[in-house]
Design goal:
Blueprint: H1 14-23, H2 28-47, E1 56-58, E2 61-62, H3 68-78, H4 81-84, E3 87-90, E4 96-98, E5 105-107, H5 109-118, H6 125-138, E6 140-141, E7 146-148, H7 150-164, E8 172-176, E9 179-183, E10 188-191, H8 193-205, E11 210-213, E12 216-219, H9 227-236, E13 241-245, E14 248-253, H10 255-261, E15 262-263, E16 266-269, E17 272-275, E18 278-279, H11 281-288, H12 292-295, E19 303-307, E20 312-317, E21 322-325, H13 327-339, E22 344-346, E23 349-352, H14 362-365, E24 369-377, H15 383-394, E25 400-401, E26 406-408, H16 409-413, E27 424-429, E28 432-437, H17 441-455, E29 459-461, E30 495-497, E31 504-511, E32 514-521, E33 526-538, E34 544-547, E35 556-560, E36 565-576, E37 579-590, E38 596-599, E39 610-611, H18 612-615
Parallel strand pairs: 1-6, 3-11, 13-22, 34-38, 34-39
Antiparallel strand pairs: 1-2, 3-4, 5-7, 8-9, 10-12, 13-14, 15-18, 16-17, 19-20, 21-23, 24-32, 25-31, 26-30, 27-28, 29-30, 31-32, 33-36, 35-38, 36-37
Helix pairs in contact: 3-5, 7-8, 15-17
Length: 616
Protein backbone atom coordinates (compact mmCIF):
# COMPACT_ATOMS: atom_id res chain seq x y z
CA UNK A 1 0.00 0.00 0.00
CA UNK A 2 1.35 3.46 -0.96
CA UNK A 3 0.69 6.88 0.60
CA UNK A 4 1.60 10.22 -1.01
CA UNK A 5 2.13 13.16 1.35
CA UNK A 6 2.72 16.70 0.15
CA UNK A 7 5.18 19.01 1.96
CA UNK A 8 4.47 22.67 2.47
CA UNK A 9 6.64 25.54 1.06
CA UNK A 10 8.26 28.14 3.28
CA UNK A 11 5.91 31.09 3.99
CA UNK A 12 6.27 34.34 2.08
CA UNK A 13 5.14 36.27 5.22
CA UNK A 14 8.11 35.09 7.24
CA UNK A 15 10.10 38.36 6.58
CA UNK A 16 7.07 40.40 7.71
CA UNK A 17 6.84 38.53 10.96
CA UNK A 18 10.51 39.02 11.52
CA UNK A 19 10.12 42.73 11.05
CA UNK A 20 7.19 42.84 13.44
CA UNK A 21 9.20 41.00 16.06
CA UNK A 22 12.11 43.37 15.56
CA UNK A 23 10.02 46.52 16.01
CA UNK A 24 8.13 45.46 19.15
CA UNK A 25 8.33 48.17 21.75
CA UNK A 26 9.74 50.80 19.38
CA UNK A 27 6.57 52.80 18.67
CA UNK A 28 3.24 53.26 20.30
CA UNK A 29 1.62 53.41 16.91
CA UNK A 30 3.17 50.16 16.03
CA UNK A 31 2.03 48.68 19.28
CA UNK A 32 -1.46 49.70 18.45
CA UNK A 33 -1.29 48.10 15.08
CA UNK A 34 0.05 44.89 16.57
CA UNK A 35 -2.66 44.79 19.14
CA UNK A 36 -5.31 45.15 16.48
CA UNK A 37 -3.64 42.46 14.39
CA UNK A 38 -3.47 40.11 17.35
CA UNK A 39 -7.14 40.63 18.09
CA UNK A 40 -7.91 39.88 14.44
CA UNK A 41 -5.89 36.67 14.42
CA UNK A 42 -7.32 35.47 17.70
CA UNK A 43 -10.77 36.33 16.53
CA UNK A 44 -10.31 34.48 13.29
CA UNK A 45 -9.13 31.36 15.14
CA UNK A 46 -12.01 31.56 17.59
CA UNK A 47 -14.48 32.08 14.77
CA UNK A 48 -13.08 28.99 12.89
CA UNK A 49 -12.83 26.75 15.90
CA UNK A 50 -13.20 23.15 14.63
CA UNK A 51 -13.03 24.36 11.05
CA UNK A 52 -10.32 24.73 8.45
CA UNK A 53 -8.71 28.18 8.48
CA UNK A 54 -9.40 30.53 5.60
CA UNK A 55 -7.15 29.94 2.56
CA UNK A 56 -6.82 26.16 3.09
CA UNK A 57 -7.63 24.03 0.00
CA UNK A 58 -6.95 20.61 -1.54
CA UNK A 59 -6.84 19.69 -5.25
CA UNK A 60 -8.52 23.02 -6.09
CA UNK A 61 -11.35 22.54 -3.56
CA UNK A 62 -11.64 25.40 -1.01
CA UNK A 63 -11.86 24.02 2.50
CA UNK A 64 -11.69 27.20 4.61
CA UNK A 65 -14.39 27.39 7.27
CA UNK A 66 -15.48 23.74 6.79
CA UNK A 67 -15.75 21.15 9.54
CA UNK A 68 -14.22 17.69 9.14
CA UNK A 69 -17.45 16.05 7.83
CA UNK A 70 -17.89 18.96 5.45
CA UNK A 71 -14.29 18.68 4.30
CA UNK A 72 -14.66 14.93 3.64
CA UNK A 73 -17.87 15.56 1.74
CA UNK A 74 -16.27 18.31 -0.35
CA UNK A 75 -13.18 16.24 -1.09
CA UNK A 76 -15.30 13.21 -1.98
CA UNK A 77 -17.16 15.30 -4.52
CA UNK A 78 -14.05 17.00 -5.88
CA UNK A 79 -11.56 14.10 -6.03
CA UNK A 80 -13.22 11.68 -8.46
CA UNK A 81 -10.01 10.27 -10.00
CA UNK A 82 -10.49 6.68 -8.74
CA UNK A 83 -13.86 6.45 -10.47
CA UNK A 84 -13.42 8.78 -13.44
CA UNK A 85 -9.75 8.22 -14.26
CA UNK A 86 -8.89 6.10 -17.29
CA UNK A 87 -6.12 3.52 -17.35
CA UNK A 88 -5.63 1.66 -20.64
CA UNK A 89 -3.93 -1.69 -20.13
CA UNK A 90 -2.44 -2.34 -23.51
CA UNK A 91 -1.97 -5.79 -25.04
CA UNK A 92 -1.76 -6.61 -28.73
CA UNK A 93 -4.54 -9.12 -28.48
CA UNK A 94 -6.59 -8.05 -25.45
CA UNK A 95 -6.41 -4.30 -24.50
CA UNK A 96 -8.41 -3.44 -21.34
CA UNK A 97 -9.70 -0.05 -20.09
CA UNK A 98 -9.86 0.16 -16.31
CA UNK A 99 -10.81 2.79 -13.76
CA UNK A 100 -8.11 3.42 -11.13
CA UNK A 101 -10.55 2.16 -8.51
CA UNK A 102 -10.64 -1.21 -10.33
CA UNK A 103 -6.92 -1.46 -9.74
CA UNK A 104 -7.20 -0.68 -6.03
CA UNK A 105 -6.67 3.14 -6.18
CA UNK A 106 -8.48 5.17 -3.50
CA UNK A 107 -8.14 8.74 -2.07
CA UNK A 108 -7.53 8.84 1.66
CA UNK A 109 -10.07 11.61 2.38
CA UNK A 110 -10.02 11.26 6.23
CA UNK A 111 -6.27 11.76 6.27
CA UNK A 112 -6.52 14.77 3.96
CA UNK A 113 -9.26 16.35 6.11
CA UNK A 114 -7.10 15.93 9.22
CA UNK A 115 -4.20 17.57 7.41
CA UNK A 116 -6.45 20.47 6.33
CA UNK A 117 -7.65 21.05 9.92
CA UNK A 118 -4.09 20.92 11.23
CA UNK A 119 -2.92 23.89 9.16
CA UNK A 120 -2.15 26.74 11.63
CA UNK A 121 -2.78 24.47 14.60
CA UNK A 122 0.46 22.55 14.95
CA UNK A 123 3.88 23.32 16.32
CA UNK A 124 4.84 26.36 18.45
CA UNK A 125 3.12 29.71 18.39
CA UNK A 126 5.41 31.11 15.73
CA UNK A 127 4.83 28.16 13.35
CA UNK A 128 1.06 28.29 13.84
CA UNK A 129 1.05 32.06 13.29
CA UNK A 130 3.20 31.65 10.17
CA UNK A 131 0.90 28.92 8.66
CA UNK A 132 -2.19 31.07 9.39
CA UNK A 133 -0.63 34.08 7.62
CA UNK A 134 0.41 31.81 4.70
CA UNK A 135 -3.14 30.49 4.31
CA UNK A 136 -4.60 34.01 4.58
CA UNK A 137 -2.25 35.81 2.20
CA UNK A 138 -1.21 33.09 -0.33
CA UNK A 139 -3.40 30.04 0.36
CA UNK A 140 -2.35 26.69 1.76
CA UNK A 141 -3.01 23.56 -0.36
CA UNK A 142 -3.11 20.01 1.09
CA UNK A 143 -1.61 17.40 -1.27
CA UNK A 144 -3.86 14.47 -2.22
CA UNK A 145 -3.16 11.24 -0.31
CA UNK A 146 -3.43 8.41 -2.89
CA UNK A 147 -3.55 4.78 -1.73
CA UNK A 148 -2.65 2.08 -4.28
CA UNK A 149 -3.83 -1.26 -2.86
CA UNK A 150 -1.46 -3.78 -4.49
CA UNK A 151 -3.56 -6.77 -3.47
CA UNK A 152 -6.66 -5.41 -5.17
CA UNK A 153 -4.59 -4.48 -8.22
CA UNK A 154 -3.06 -7.98 -8.35
CA UNK A 155 -6.50 -9.55 -8.11
CA UNK A 156 -7.78 -7.41 -11.00
CA UNK A 157 -4.72 -8.20 -13.13
CA UNK A 158 -5.19 -11.88 -12.27
CA UNK A 159 -8.59 -11.78 -13.93
CA UNK A 160 -6.98 -10.24 -17.01
CA UNK A 161 -4.29 -12.94 -16.94
CA UNK A 162 -7.00 -15.58 -17.19
CA UNK A 163 -7.69 -14.19 -20.65
CA UNK A 164 -4.22 -13.17 -21.81
CA UNK A 165 -2.22 -16.10 -20.52
CA UNK A 166 -1.58 -18.98 -22.91
CA UNK A 167 -0.39 -22.30 -21.41
CA UNK A 168 2.96 -23.72 -22.43
CA UNK A 169 2.85 -27.07 -24.23
CA UNK A 170 5.83 -29.42 -24.08
CA UNK A 171 6.82 -31.36 -27.15
CA UNK A 172 6.01 -35.06 -26.67
CA UNK A 173 7.31 -38.40 -27.88
CA UNK A 174 5.47 -41.70 -27.51
CA UNK A 175 5.15 -45.07 -29.15
CA UNK A 176 2.29 -47.00 -30.65
CA UNK A 177 3.76 -50.41 -31.28
CA UNK A 178 6.79 -49.69 -33.44
CA UNK A 179 5.43 -46.34 -34.61
CA UNK A 180 7.13 -43.28 -33.11
CA UNK A 181 4.81 -40.30 -32.72
CA UNK A 182 6.17 -36.77 -32.16
CA UNK A 183 3.94 -33.91 -31.01
CA UNK A 184 5.33 -30.34 -31.29
CA UNK A 185 5.48 -27.99 -28.32
CA UNK A 186 4.05 -24.46 -28.04
CA UNK A 187 5.41 -21.24 -26.49
CA UNK A 188 3.14 -19.93 -23.75
CA UNK A 189 2.35 -16.33 -22.58
CA UNK A 190 2.18 -15.20 -18.97
CA UNK A 191 1.21 -11.81 -17.49
CA UNK A 192 3.89 -10.57 -15.10
CA UNK A 193 1.56 -9.07 -12.49
CA UNK A 194 4.30 -7.67 -10.22
CA UNK A 195 6.05 -5.88 -13.09
CA UNK A 196 2.75 -4.46 -14.37
CA UNK A 197 1.87 -3.12 -10.91
CA UNK A 198 5.27 -1.40 -10.75
CA UNK A 199 4.57 0.35 -14.06
CA UNK A 200 1.17 1.54 -12.74
CA UNK A 201 2.59 3.05 -9.56
CA UNK A 202 3.80 6.31 -11.18
CA UNK A 203 0.67 7.50 -13.01
CA UNK A 204 -1.83 6.55 -10.31
CA UNK A 205 0.21 8.24 -7.56
CA UNK A 206 -0.09 11.46 -9.61
CA UNK A 207 -3.76 10.73 -10.43
CA UNK A 208 -3.04 10.78 -14.16
CA UNK A 209 -4.80 8.94 -16.90
CA UNK A 210 -2.31 6.66 -18.66
CA UNK A 211 -1.73 3.89 -21.15
CA UNK A 212 0.32 1.09 -19.56
CA UNK A 213 1.62 -1.88 -21.51
CA UNK A 214 0.81 -5.17 -19.82
CA UNK A 215 4.07 -6.87 -18.94
CA UNK A 216 3.53 -10.18 -20.73
CA UNK A 217 6.44 -12.56 -21.14
CA UNK A 218 6.83 -15.58 -23.39
CA UNK A 219 7.16 -18.88 -21.55
CA UNK A 220 8.89 -21.40 -23.80
CA UNK A 221 8.59 -25.14 -23.09
CA UNK A 222 11.66 -27.10 -22.03
CA UNK A 223 11.45 -28.89 -25.38
CA UNK A 224 9.77 -27.16 -28.32
CA UNK A 225 10.61 -29.68 -31.05
CA UNK A 226 11.24 -33.45 -30.77
CA UNK A 227 11.30 -34.30 -34.46
CA UNK A 228 15.02 -35.14 -34.52
CA UNK A 229 14.70 -37.56 -31.62
CA UNK A 230 11.64 -39.13 -33.25
CA UNK A 231 13.63 -39.73 -36.44
CA UNK A 232 16.44 -41.31 -34.41
CA UNK A 233 13.99 -43.57 -32.56
CA UNK A 234 12.55 -44.73 -35.87
CA UNK A 235 16.06 -45.58 -37.09
CA UNK A 236 16.80 -47.52 -33.90
CA UNK A 237 13.66 -49.61 -34.24
CA UNK A 238 14.42 -50.62 -37.81
CA UNK A 239 16.63 -53.55 -36.77
CA UNK A 240 17.61 -55.56 -33.67
CA UNK A 241 20.13 -54.29 -31.15
CA UNK A 242 23.09 -56.70 -30.90
CA UNK A 243 25.01 -57.04 -27.62
CA UNK A 244 28.42 -58.58 -28.29
CA UNK A 245 31.21 -60.04 -26.19
CA UNK A 246 34.46 -61.79 -27.01
CA UNK A 247 34.01 -65.55 -27.06
CA UNK A 248 30.22 -65.45 -26.87
CA UNK A 249 27.33 -65.48 -29.29
CA UNK A 250 25.74 -62.03 -29.86
CA UNK A 251 22.60 -61.33 -27.88
CA UNK A 252 19.82 -59.85 -30.02
CA UNK A 253 17.16 -57.50 -28.66
CA UNK A 254 14.32 -57.37 -31.18
CA UNK A 255 12.72 -54.06 -32.22
CA UNK A 256 9.51 -55.15 -30.47
CA UNK A 257 11.43 -55.78 -27.25
CA UNK A 258 13.26 -52.48 -27.58
CA UNK A 259 9.99 -50.63 -28.14
CA UNK A 260 8.57 -52.10 -24.94
CA UNK A 261 11.67 -50.88 -23.05
CA UNK A 262 12.19 -47.52 -24.78
CA UNK A 263 11.89 -44.30 -22.77
CA UNK A 264 12.32 -40.63 -23.67
CA UNK A 265 13.64 -38.65 -20.68
CA UNK A 266 14.38 -34.93 -20.98
CA UNK A 267 17.94 -33.82 -20.22
CA UNK A 268 19.41 -30.33 -19.80
CA UNK A 269 22.69 -29.56 -21.52
CA UNK A 270 24.26 -26.13 -21.75
CA UNK A 271 21.11 -24.36 -20.68
CA UNK A 272 18.88 -26.08 -23.22
CA UNK A 273 16.80 -29.20 -22.87
CA UNK A 274 16.07 -32.00 -25.30
CA UNK A 275 14.74 -35.52 -25.35
CA UNK A 276 17.12 -38.44 -25.23
CA UNK A 277 16.47 -42.09 -26.00
CA UNK A 278 17.21 -44.89 -23.57
CA UNK A 279 16.04 -48.34 -22.65
CA UNK A 280 14.39 -48.74 -19.27
CA UNK A 281 17.37 -49.54 -16.99
CA UNK A 282 15.38 -51.92 -14.78
CA UNK A 283 14.07 -53.88 -17.77
CA UNK A 284 17.51 -53.96 -19.38
CA UNK A 285 19.12 -55.10 -16.12
CA UNK A 286 16.53 -57.89 -15.86
CA UNK A 287 17.51 -59.01 -19.36
CA UNK A 288 21.26 -58.89 -18.63
CA UNK A 289 21.36 -60.50 -15.20
CA UNK A 290 20.55 -64.07 -16.32
CA UNK A 291 23.29 -64.05 -18.96
CA UNK A 292 25.95 -62.67 -16.62
CA UNK A 293 27.11 -66.05 -15.24
CA UNK A 294 27.52 -67.50 -18.75
CA UNK A 295 29.73 -64.59 -19.76
CA UNK A 296 31.78 -64.59 -16.58
CA UNK A 297 35.36 -65.73 -16.97
CA UNK A 298 37.77 -66.44 -14.15
CA UNK A 299 41.32 -65.17 -14.51
CA UNK A 300 43.73 -67.93 -15.53
CA UNK A 301 47.50 -67.85 -15.28
CA UNK A 302 49.56 -68.22 -18.37
CA UNK A 303 50.82 -71.76 -18.94
CA UNK A 304 54.42 -72.61 -19.69
CA UNK A 305 56.76 -75.48 -20.58
CA UNK A 306 60.14 -75.60 -18.86
CA UNK A 307 62.90 -75.64 -21.47
CA UNK A 308 65.48 -78.09 -20.16
CA UNK A 309 68.13 -76.66 -22.50
CA UNK A 310 67.73 -72.94 -21.78
CA UNK A 311 66.28 -73.47 -18.30
CA UNK A 312 63.73 -70.81 -19.16
CA UNK A 313 59.97 -70.87 -19.60
CA UNK A 314 58.41 -71.23 -23.04
CA UNK A 315 54.88 -69.85 -23.28
CA UNK A 316 52.43 -72.68 -23.90
CA UNK A 317 49.10 -70.92 -23.42
CA UNK A 318 48.41 -67.23 -22.91
CA UNK A 319 46.92 -65.93 -19.70
CA UNK A 320 43.19 -65.32 -19.52
CA UNK A 321 41.96 -61.98 -18.22
CA UNK A 322 39.07 -62.51 -15.82
CA UNK A 323 35.83 -60.68 -16.42
CA UNK A 324 32.47 -60.10 -14.77
CA UNK A 325 29.57 -58.49 -16.60
CA UNK A 326 29.20 -54.85 -15.51
CA UNK A 327 25.46 -54.35 -15.86
CA UNK A 328 25.38 -50.63 -15.05
CA UNK A 329 28.23 -49.82 -17.45
CA UNK A 330 26.55 -51.94 -20.13
CA UNK A 331 23.29 -50.02 -19.68
CA UNK A 332 25.21 -46.75 -20.08
CA UNK A 333 26.95 -48.12 -23.19
CA UNK A 334 23.59 -49.12 -24.69
CA UNK A 335 22.19 -45.63 -24.11
CA UNK A 336 25.28 -44.04 -25.68
CA UNK A 337 25.03 -46.32 -28.70
CA UNK A 338 21.33 -45.62 -29.14
CA UNK A 339 21.99 -41.87 -29.05
CA UNK A 340 24.42 -42.39 -31.93
CA UNK A 341 22.00 -44.58 -33.88
CA UNK A 342 24.21 -47.67 -33.51
CA UNK A 343 22.86 -51.22 -33.45
CA UNK A 344 25.86 -53.11 -32.07
CA UNK A 345 27.08 -52.59 -28.52
CA UNK A 346 30.01 -54.40 -26.84
CA UNK A 347 29.05 -55.58 -23.36
CA UNK A 348 31.01 -53.89 -20.55
CA UNK A 349 33.00 -56.00 -18.12
CA UNK A 350 34.89 -55.57 -14.89
CA UNK A 351 38.23 -57.23 -15.58
CA UNK A 352 40.73 -58.87 -13.24
CA UNK A 353 44.28 -59.86 -14.10
CA UNK A 354 45.70 -63.29 -13.27
CA UNK A 355 48.71 -63.64 -10.99
CA UNK A 356 50.99 -64.83 -13.79
CA UNK A 357 50.94 -63.17 -17.20
CA UNK A 358 52.57 -64.17 -20.48
CA UNK A 359 55.79 -62.29 -19.75
CA UNK A 360 56.59 -64.15 -16.52
CA UNK A 361 60.08 -65.70 -16.35
CA UNK A 362 61.47 -68.74 -14.59
CA UNK A 363 63.37 -66.38 -12.30
CA UNK A 364 60.17 -64.51 -11.44
CA UNK A 365 58.48 -67.74 -10.38
CA UNK A 366 61.46 -69.45 -8.79
CA UNK A 367 61.41 -72.39 -11.21
CA UNK A 368 64.87 -73.80 -11.89
CA UNK A 369 64.72 -77.59 -12.17
CA UNK A 370 62.77 -80.83 -12.34
CA UNK A 371 61.99 -81.73 -8.72
CA UNK A 372 59.99 -84.97 -9.22
CA UNK A 373 58.36 -87.09 -11.90
CA UNK A 374 55.99 -90.05 -11.75
CA UNK A 375 54.55 -92.52 -14.27
CA UNK A 376 51.68 -94.96 -14.54
CA UNK A 377 50.93 -97.41 -17.32
CA UNK A 378 47.68 -98.34 -19.04
CA UNK A 379 48.50 -101.20 -21.38
CA UNK A 380 45.34 -102.95 -22.54
CA UNK A 381 43.13 -99.85 -22.21
CA UNK A 382 40.39 -99.28 -24.75
CA UNK A 383 40.63 -96.40 -27.17
CA UNK A 384 37.88 -94.63 -25.22
CA UNK A 385 39.83 -94.93 -21.96
CA UNK A 386 42.98 -93.63 -23.63
CA UNK A 387 41.00 -90.68 -25.01
CA UNK A 388 39.83 -89.82 -21.48
CA UNK A 389 43.37 -90.11 -20.09
CA UNK A 390 44.63 -87.75 -22.79
CA UNK A 391 41.78 -85.25 -22.27
CA UNK A 392 42.06 -85.17 -18.48
CA UNK A 393 45.88 -85.00 -18.33
CA UNK A 394 45.92 -82.17 -20.89
CA UNK A 395 43.96 -80.03 -18.40
CA UNK A 396 47.10 -79.97 -16.19
CA UNK A 397 49.79 -79.51 -18.83
CA UNK A 398 51.65 -76.23 -18.14
CA UNK A 399 49.54 -75.50 -15.04
CA UNK A 400 51.09 -73.48 -12.21
CA UNK A 401 50.47 -73.92 -8.49
CA UNK A 402 51.45 -70.87 -6.42
CA UNK A 403 53.49 -71.05 -3.22
CA UNK A 404 51.10 -72.02 -0.43
CA UNK A 405 48.36 -72.79 -2.95
CA UNK A 406 46.15 -75.88 -2.84
CA UNK A 407 45.27 -77.60 -6.10
CA UNK A 408 41.89 -79.32 -6.49
CA UNK A 409 41.67 -81.78 -9.36
CA UNK A 410 37.90 -81.35 -9.49
CA UNK A 411 38.29 -77.59 -9.97
CA UNK A 412 40.78 -78.04 -12.79
CA UNK A 413 38.84 -80.79 -14.56
CA UNK A 414 35.46 -79.07 -14.36
CA UNK A 415 32.59 -80.79 -16.14
CA UNK A 416 33.52 -84.27 -17.33
CA UNK A 417 31.13 -84.66 -20.24
CA UNK A 418 30.93 -85.70 -23.86
CA UNK A 419 30.83 -82.03 -24.84
CA UNK A 420 34.21 -81.50 -23.21
CA UNK A 421 35.95 -84.26 -25.14
CA UNK A 422 35.39 -87.27 -22.90
CA UNK A 423 34.13 -90.68 -24.01
CA UNK A 424 32.28 -93.50 -22.31
CA UNK A 425 34.54 -96.14 -20.74
CA UNK A 426 34.49 -98.43 -17.70
CA UNK A 427 34.11 -96.73 -14.31
CA UNK A 428 33.54 -98.00 -10.79
CA UNK A 429 30.03 -97.05 -9.68
CA UNK A 430 28.86 -98.37 -6.34
CA UNK A 431 29.52 -102.12 -6.31
CA UNK A 432 29.72 -102.42 -10.10
CA UNK A 433 32.07 -101.57 -12.93
CA UNK A 434 29.96 -99.96 -15.62
CA UNK A 435 30.31 -97.83 -18.73
CA UNK A 436 30.32 -94.14 -17.84
CA UNK A 437 31.61 -90.86 -19.23
CA UNK A 438 35.21 -90.29 -18.18
CA UNK A 439 36.36 -93.79 -17.46
CA UNK A 440 40.16 -93.60 -17.17
CA UNK A 441 40.33 -90.20 -15.42
CA UNK A 442 41.48 -92.08 -12.32
CA UNK A 443 44.66 -93.02 -14.22
CA UNK A 444 45.39 -89.28 -14.21
CA UNK A 445 44.50 -88.76 -10.54
CA UNK A 446 46.62 -91.76 -9.53
CA UNK A 447 49.63 -90.46 -11.48
CA UNK A 448 49.32 -87.00 -9.92
CA UNK A 449 48.91 -88.54 -6.46
CA UNK A 450 52.13 -90.49 -6.85
CA UNK A 451 54.07 -87.38 -8.00
CA UNK A 452 52.76 -85.50 -4.97
CA UNK A 453 53.51 -88.44 -2.66
CA UNK A 454 57.05 -88.97 -3.93
CA UNK A 455 57.72 -85.23 -4.07
CA UNK A 456 56.95 -84.81 -0.38
CA UNK A 457 54.03 -82.39 -0.74
CA UNK A 458 51.16 -82.32 1.81
CA UNK A 459 48.16 -84.41 0.71
CA UNK A 460 44.89 -82.70 1.64
CA UNK A 461 42.35 -85.16 0.22
CA UNK A 462 42.81 -88.63 -1.27
CA UNK A 463 40.25 -91.36 -1.89
CA UNK A 464 41.20 -94.95 -2.92
CA UNK A 465 39.39 -97.16 -5.39
CA UNK A 466 36.90 -99.69 -4.11
CA UNK A 467 39.01 -102.53 -5.47
CA UNK A 468 42.49 -103.06 -6.86
CA UNK A 469 42.81 -101.89 -10.44
CA UNK A 470 45.40 -103.77 -12.46
CA UNK A 471 46.50 -100.71 -14.46
CA UNK A 472 47.95 -99.10 -11.33
CA UNK A 473 50.16 -102.09 -10.51
CA UNK A 474 51.66 -102.64 -13.96
CA UNK A 475 54.79 -101.32 -15.58
CA UNK A 476 58.34 -100.68 -14.44
CA UNK A 477 58.86 -99.21 -11.01
CA UNK A 478 55.28 -99.83 -9.90
CA UNK A 479 54.96 -99.17 -6.15
CA UNK A 480 52.32 -101.87 -5.88
CA UNK A 481 48.85 -101.54 -4.30
CA UNK A 482 47.85 -98.73 -1.94
CA UNK A 483 49.11 -95.77 -3.97
CA UNK A 484 46.13 -95.00 -6.17
CA UNK A 485 43.62 -92.15 -6.02
CA UNK A 486 40.18 -91.84 -7.51
CA UNK A 487 38.31 -88.72 -8.61
CA UNK A 488 34.59 -88.50 -9.28
CA UNK A 489 33.71 -84.86 -10.04
CA UNK A 490 32.29 -83.13 -8.11
CA UNK A 491 31.80 -85.52 -5.19
CA UNK A 492 35.22 -87.15 -4.85
CA UNK A 493 38.37 -85.05 -5.20
CA UNK A 494 42.13 -85.17 -4.88
CA UNK A 495 43.86 -82.13 -3.36
CA UNK A 496 47.40 -81.23 -2.37
CA UNK A 497 49.28 -78.10 -1.27
CA UNK A 498 52.48 -76.59 -2.60
CA UNK A 499 54.12 -75.74 0.70
CA UNK A 500 57.36 -74.45 -0.84
CA UNK A 501 58.33 -70.80 -1.45
CA UNK A 502 58.51 -71.35 -5.24
CA UNK A 503 55.87 -71.79 -7.90
CA UNK A 504 55.23 -75.35 -9.07
CA UNK A 505 54.93 -76.04 -12.81
CA UNK A 506 53.30 -79.31 -13.94
CA UNK A 507 53.76 -81.03 -17.29
CA UNK A 508 51.97 -84.17 -18.49
CA UNK A 509 52.91 -86.46 -21.39
CA UNK A 510 51.44 -89.59 -22.97
CA UNK A 511 54.25 -91.80 -24.26
CA UNK A 512 52.81 -94.99 -25.75
CA UNK A 513 50.96 -96.61 -22.84
CA UNK A 514 52.73 -94.49 -20.20
CA UNK A 515 51.40 -91.34 -18.53
CA UNK A 516 54.35 -89.22 -17.33
CA UNK A 517 53.86 -86.35 -14.85
CA UNK A 518 56.65 -83.82 -14.18
CA UNK A 519 56.97 -81.22 -11.43
CA UNK A 520 59.29 -78.23 -12.08
CA UNK A 521 60.17 -75.88 -9.24
CA UNK A 522 63.20 -75.30 -7.01
CA UNK A 523 64.07 -78.01 -4.53
CA UNK A 524 64.19 -76.98 -0.90
CA UNK A 525 66.19 -80.11 -0.05
CA UNK A 526 63.36 -82.27 1.21
CA UNK A 527 63.53 -86.06 0.91
CA UNK A 528 60.88 -88.76 1.17
CA UNK A 529 61.08 -92.15 2.81
CA UNK A 530 58.15 -94.53 2.63
CA UNK A 531 57.17 -98.12 3.32
CA UNK A 532 54.20 -100.34 2.54
CA UNK A 533 52.60 -103.22 4.41
CA UNK A 534 49.77 -105.50 3.23
CA UNK A 535 47.43 -107.74 5.21
CA UNK A 536 44.10 -109.58 5.19
CA UNK A 537 44.17 -110.67 1.56
CA UNK A 538 40.81 -112.11 0.47
CA UNK A 539 40.27 -114.08 -2.71
CA UNK A 540 37.82 -112.73 -5.21
CA UNK A 541 34.42 -114.48 -5.38
CA UNK A 542 33.66 -116.86 -8.25
CA UNK A 543 32.57 -115.16 -11.49
CA UNK A 544 28.87 -114.35 -11.91
CA UNK A 545 26.90 -114.80 -15.12
CA UNK A 546 23.96 -112.47 -15.93
CA UNK A 547 21.53 -112.76 -18.81
CA UNK A 548 21.39 -109.71 -21.09
CA UNK A 549 18.43 -109.76 -23.51
CA UNK A 550 20.26 -107.29 -25.78
CA UNK A 551 22.99 -109.81 -26.56
CA UNK A 552 22.50 -112.50 -29.25
CA UNK A 553 22.34 -116.17 -28.41
CA UNK A 554 25.76 -117.72 -27.95
CA UNK A 555 27.59 -114.46 -27.02
CA UNK A 556 29.27 -114.11 -23.63
CA UNK A 557 30.77 -110.72 -22.69
CA UNK A 558 32.88 -109.88 -19.61
CA UNK A 559 31.76 -106.59 -18.00
CA UNK A 560 33.64 -106.73 -14.67
CA UNK A 561 36.97 -108.15 -13.59
CA UNK A 562 38.02 -110.03 -10.50
CA UNK A 563 40.39 -108.63 -7.88
CA UNK A 564 41.44 -110.04 -4.51
CA UNK A 565 40.62 -108.03 -1.42
CA UNK A 566 43.53 -106.51 0.52
CA UNK A 567 44.39 -104.05 3.28
CA UNK A 568 47.39 -101.79 2.64
CA UNK A 569 49.11 -99.33 5.00
CA UNK A 570 51.64 -96.90 3.52
CA UNK A 571 53.79 -94.72 5.79
CA UNK A 572 55.63 -91.65 4.55
CA UNK A 573 58.19 -89.42 6.26
CA UNK A 574 59.26 -86.12 4.71
CA UNK A 575 62.51 -84.60 6.01
CA UNK A 576 64.70 -81.60 5.21
CA UNK A 577 68.18 -81.11 6.59
CA UNK A 578 67.58 -83.97 9.05
CA UNK A 579 64.40 -82.26 10.29
CA UNK A 580 61.11 -84.10 9.95
CA UNK A 581 58.63 -81.88 8.19
CA UNK A 582 55.74 -84.30 8.62
CA UNK A 583 54.74 -87.95 8.58
CA UNK A 584 51.54 -89.45 7.27
CA UNK A 585 49.87 -92.83 7.03
CA UNK A 586 47.76 -93.80 4.05
CA UNK A 587 45.38 -96.68 4.64
CA UNK A 588 43.50 -98.49 1.89
CA UNK A 589 40.90 -101.26 2.23
CA UNK A 590 40.31 -103.03 -1.10
CA UNK A 591 37.16 -105.09 -1.41
CA UNK A 592 37.27 -108.52 -3.03
CA UNK A 593 35.81 -108.04 -6.51
CA UNK A 594 34.21 -110.71 -8.65
CA UNK A 595 34.26 -111.00 -12.39
CA UNK A 596 30.89 -110.59 -14.12
CA UNK A 597 29.89 -111.98 -17.51
CA UNK A 598 26.77 -111.17 -19.50
CA UNK A 599 25.26 -113.59 -22.03
CA UNK A 600 22.52 -113.64 -24.59
CA UNK A 601 19.30 -115.66 -24.06
CA UNK A 602 19.70 -119.37 -24.91
CA UNK A 603 23.52 -119.25 -24.64
CA UNK A 604 25.17 -122.44 -23.31
CA UNK A 605 27.23 -121.55 -20.20
CA UNK A 606 30.27 -123.34 -18.72
CA UNK A 607 29.36 -126.24 -16.45
CA UNK A 608 30.73 -124.43 -13.34
CA UNK A 609 29.04 -121.09 -14.18
CA UNK A 610 27.23 -119.36 -11.30
CA UNK A 611 24.16 -117.38 -12.39
CA UNK A 612 21.92 -114.91 -10.58
CA UNK A 613 19.30 -117.65 -10.27
CA UNK A 614 21.85 -119.83 -8.48
CA UNK A 615 22.56 -117.10 -5.90
CA UNK A 616 18.89 -116.37 -5.36
Amino acid sequence: MMRSVRTYPRSRTEPLLFMLRATLGLSAAVLGILASLTLFIVGTRLFNLGRALPGVSAAGVSLGGLTQPEIELALGRGLTYPATGRIVLEDQEHPVIAAPADLGVIIDVPTMSQQALSVGRRGDFGLRLQEQFDAWFSGRSVAPVVIFDQRSGAAYLGRIAAVTDVPTVEAALHLQGLEVIAEPGRIGRRLDIAATLDSLRGPVSLMHDASVVLMIEDVPPRVLDASNEAALARTILQQPLMLTAEGAEPIAITPEKMASMMRFPVVDEGGSAHYTIELDPLALAALLEPIGPDLERKPENARFIFNDDTRQLDLFKSAVIGRTLDIQATIAAVDTALAAGQHEVPLAFITSDPSVKDDATAQDLGITELVISASTFFSGSSSERIQNIRTASAAFHGLLVPPGGTLSMADVLGDISLDNGYAEALIIFGDRTINGVGGGVCQVSTTLFRAVFMGGYPIIERNPHAYRVGYYEQGRGSPGPGLDATVFVPLVDFKFTNDTPSWLLMETYLQGTELLWKFYSTSDGRTVQWSSKTSDEVEAPEPLYKENPDLPEGEIKQVDYQADGLDVVVNRTVTRNNEVLYTDTIKTHYLPWRAIYEYGPGTKLPDDAITEEDEN
